[in-house]
Amino acid sequence: MSVSDMGLIALGGGCGASVRYGIVLAQSRLSRWPGWTGVLAANLLGCLIIGVAVGSDSHGPWVAAMVITGLAGALTTFSSFALDLALMSVTRAWGQLIWCSLLSLAGGIPLVLLGRVIGIAWFGGAA
């Protein structure tokens, strides 16, 4: 890994973490939905971004460094997802735990695939 790769990862990571924080903060202030929906929204957006980046693989290694590892890696987070599920378990919010889990998987996988198709179409990546 080169110094420029590390810089791209740091740049993308700073942007991703900031966007995630903004999404979670906006969700908590602007809606009455449970707090985990902000993490869900950030994770689903990250899935779409990863899919677009994978579909646009013809743009070189900077995409992997800055967009996939940095931006999407900091935007999405398994640790926050796991924390939300653990708190729902402790409080016995079983319905919310099931919804959060199902929506994360049922939304995330199709969004990665959709993003890949978008990346191929927009950037001419490999199929």
Give the secondary structure arrangement, pairings included.
Blueprint: H1 3-30, H2 36-55, H3 61-75, H4 78-90, H5 94-123
Provide the domain count: 1
* Integer-rounded radius of gyration: 16 Å
Oligomeric form: single chain
Bin the helical content: over 70%
Q: How many separate helices?
A: 5
Strand content: under 5%
Number of strands: 0
Order of helices and strands: HHHHH
What does this entry look like structurally?
With 127 residues, the protein is mainly α. It has helices spanning 3-30, 36-55, 61-75, 78-90, 94-123. Helix 1 runs antiparallel to helix 2 (36-55). The longest helix has 30 residues, at 94-123. The radius of gyration is 16 Å and the shape is globular.
Quick rundown:
The chain has 127 residues and is mainly α. It has helices at 3-30, 36-55, 61-75, 78-90, 94-123.
Features:
127 residues; mainly alpha
